[in-house]
Amino acid sequence: TKWVYGFGNGTAEGSAEMRNLLGGKGANLAEMSNLGLPVPPGFTITTEVCTWYYEHDKSYPGDLRAQVDAALAEVGRLTGRAFGDSANPLLVSVRSGARASMPGMMDTVLNLGLNDVTVKAIGEGAEDMRFAYDSYRRFIQMYSDVVLGVEHHAFEEILQEHKDNNGHVLDTDLSAEELAVVIEQFKALVEEELGRPFPQDPMEQLWGAIGAVFGSWMTPRAQTYRRLHDIPATWGTAVNVQAMVFGNMGETSATGVAFTRNPSTGEKALYGEFLVNAQGEDVVAGIRTPQDLTEKARLEAGSERPSLESLMPEAFREFVTICDRLEGHYRDMQDLEFTIERGKLWMLQTRSGKRTAKAALKIAVDMVSEGLLSERQAVTRVEPAALDQLLHPTIDPKAERDIFATGLPASPGAASGAIVFTSDEAEQEKAAGRKVILVRVETSPEDIHGMHAAEGILTSRGGMTSHAAVVARGMGKPCVSGAGLLRVDYRAGTLSAGGRVLKKGDTITIDGSTGQVLLGDVPMLQPSLSGDFATLMGWADGVRRMRVRTNAETPADARVAREFGAEGIGLCRTEHMFFEGERIVAVREMILSETEEGRRAALAKLLPMQRNDFIQLFEIMKGLPVTIRLLDPPLHEFLPKSDEEIAEVAAAMGVDAQKLRERSHELEEFNPMLGHRGCRLLVSYPEIAEMQARAIFEAAIEAGRATGAPVVPEIMVPLVGLKAELDLVRDRIDAMARAVAGETGAQLAYQVGTMVELPRAALRAAEIAASAEFFSFGTNDLTQTTFGISRDDAASFLGTYQQKGLLEQDPFVSLDRDGVGELVKIGAERGRSARPEIKLGICGEHGGDPASIDFCESVGLDYVSCSPFRVPIARLAAAQAAL
Ligand code: ADP
Ligand code: MG
Ligand code: MG
């Protein structure tokens, strides 16, 4: 088997297409090399080796070593050096690279191959001992940290002490002699920690680093990340070994990162940062503040420090040309890493750049006008879930802003919450239903869970490309980074700036669009949905097949959903209307009455209110379909619970408190979820269905007259398991339709259908369809009843299931295709077999989940229905599913 793929010198054995085998980084290094771009030569050990490694008790294929040796020799040939050679040594970087870029994987090790002998040769070759020692101390530090597990900060402390003792501020101020001393101390530290010396043999170093990359694939951090992003463990990571180029060879050398367009706004302008005389991750580590790439950016930022454009014009021009070339080649915004060694530019990475939703929209729309993309391609370029960011509030410009501090606008949107200083606290507070802002000096991959739990993230250190900024943008969370004047004191639990001190629990608002940190809970505005958003959504609407409806029962929700493009209501839960204002009194009266007569009297009071609700919804929906579900929850939910409440309600209703308590007791159920609810209530009390049907019909007539758009209501009977249940309720509805038509002389068009939310209904769909003009898959209940897992109790064990790998995803969030999905498929097929024109939709939470929407398309459902704020997401996801 071929385990190793070489690249460099204008050719490569791999290409961008081989991402699965070579990982993202390796595939793109090969592609850049094929394009003839300046890429230091190297090779990629494939992801198949990773899989092999874990299938064979963490060992390597027998022929791997020979292939690595040969590839290493070829890199030596191309660079005119030899790995481990004492006169002309080759140094390499060892870089991990999975298919999808993945925090949590091993950090890159640079300058590998250095030891007490080769460091001299490197220094003499470059005629710069300071550079050689700087590389060596970096190597010991990185290798010890990521491969040997000696903590990073121990080295930092030694370095800091040296700087302090010698009056230096920056790492670059340290002389060759000083660095030589630092190195001796580093080595002593390693020996003390590990009980053996720092490895001097380059081959041992290399295999140590390769093993560490494969080992990092199974760390808890990496596993958590994979779980959150649905990346299967079987994908594995590749290892890239690449000849070093040096950005730390003095003032004509540099290293930097860039985006071909602004990742925050999408503006078509090169955007990035660099540092002179630096290596690797110095730029993102926030130790020195990086400089702007372009003059334009420098002027806009009002920075005194020169841009790369003015400092190294030739390398800069070449870089700009390469950026354009790569963007055109990949037809996407690129995120690039480069190093300049004594004026010569080298490309170290390219990939599709992460971007905010706003930027994603702008870039997709711009690229269509630039002729780089077709409209259909543009539709695939925006991640549906990311639209959420655009639907988030921004700070009301009229609101008073008490600015506490200002940092970088790292990820747009605004959020308020209580200050917490650790990710664990963020998670706990969130679980307790509180909103928090995670405040850190800087974040690391260990903070992912806290960042997920927080409304927003604030850091005192780090630039626009810092960990916090990149991850927050990916998550669509507001983030302010590098608020330098902010002092975060973890020990004291305080956050201070400008003489003011805040504590854990105090409320702040961050504005990720301006970088401001504000005191208190600041008023916010809803976002606008015009411009690029409207353009792209228009294209999406043009390609999608499924309709998108909303789950709404209040006029406010219905209006929002219409603005977001909902094409009707897929689920109106009438019980929500029963809680409002004085209605609850009539509802309780109905529940408490012992006779049908009494119930009818109470229902008569509810009728005009219900009718009014429906008129409003029908008017807002202007002839679009509206599905109204008849009363669903167990009656017990409507009764007061505590003794005080009971006393109060009894007094208000003029009934005996004791009687009320008894009735409440009677209605209590061991397992209400599976109890007297849904159509079972309507079977017991058909008069409820009659009242609701009358309200619906009368409202349809009135709204139809008022708007001129005829209303064809869809009446949905919940929790049907037997055809006979549906028939019984349906008879009452049909009778009511005849009655209302007779009274008013109006023509009535309507449909009756059912929610498919019990496995039996899915299995018996053919016979049920004889009485149902539509099915709506109620996948919340269908998931509960298929798994036999109560949604309200699932939290205590589903997490464990996910951690132990029993379930990849929470089935209440993303539809379980294999089980629940099979029932949906069966229900759809059998329903259609009996009634080919039957209308099929889905109305659980899954209706707004892109992966579940993709499934709905594959089953051929007619529409999905979701909460108002997810409507745009569903429109785009439905379009992508259709492509
Ligand atoms: P990450 O996935 O965290 O970005 P990389 O493997 O891209 O890690 O490495 C991070 C940085 O290390 C690169 O941006 C580059 O600056 C530096 N680097 C990696 N390989 C080399 C190399 N062969 N020569 C010089 N610098 C390198
Ligand atoms: Mg890294
Ligand atoms: Mg990189």
UniProtKB/TrEMBL annotation:
Output the Pfam families linked to this UniProt entry: PEP-utilizers, PEP-utilizers_C, PPDK_N
Reactions this protein catalyses: pyruvate + phosphate + ATP = phosphoenolpyruvate + AMP + diphosphate + H(+)
Which residue range or ranges hold the PEP-utilising enzyme C-terminal domain?
530-881
Q: Which SUPFAM superfamilies match?
A: Glutathione synthetase ATP-binding domain-like, Phosphoenolpyruvate/pyruvate domain, Phosphohistidine domain
Top-rank EC class of the record's enzyme = transferase
Q: Which UniProt keywords apply?
A: ATP-binding, Kinase, Magnesium, Metal-binding, Nucleotide-binding, Pyruvate, Transferase
Question: In the Enzyme Commission scheme, what number(s) does this protein have?
Answer: 2.7.9.1
- Gene3D superfamilies cross-referenced by the UniProt entry: 1.20.80.30, ATP-grasp fold, A domain, ATP-grasp fold, B domain, Phosphoenolpyruvate-binding domains, Phosphohistidine domain, Pyruvate Phosphate Dikinase, domain 2
Any one GO MF term held by the record is: metal ion binding
Task: Please state the gene responsible for encoding this protein.
Answer: ppdK
Where does the chain bind substrate?
A: 573, 629, 757, 778-781
Q: Enumerate the residues binding Mg(2+).
A: 757, 781
Quote the catalytic residue positions. Answer: 467, 843
Please report the stretch or stretches of sequence annotated as the Pyruvate phosphate dikinase AMP/ATP-binding domain.
Answer: 59-370
Describe the location of the PEP-utilising enzyme mobile domain by residue ranges.
435-515
User: Which co-factors does it depend on?
Assistant: Mg(2+)
Protein name listed in UniProt: Pyruvate, phosphate dikinase
What function does this protein fulfil? Catalyzes the reversible phosphorylation of pyruvate and phosphate.
InterPro entries reported for this sequence: ATP_grasp_subdomain_1 (IPR013815), PEP-util_enz_mobile_dom (IPR008279), PEP_util_AS (IPR018274), PEP_util_C (IPR000121), PEP_util_CS (IPR023151), Phosphohistidine_dom_sf (IPR036637), PPDK_AMP/ATP-bd (IPR002192), Pyruvate_phosphate_dikinase (IPR010121)
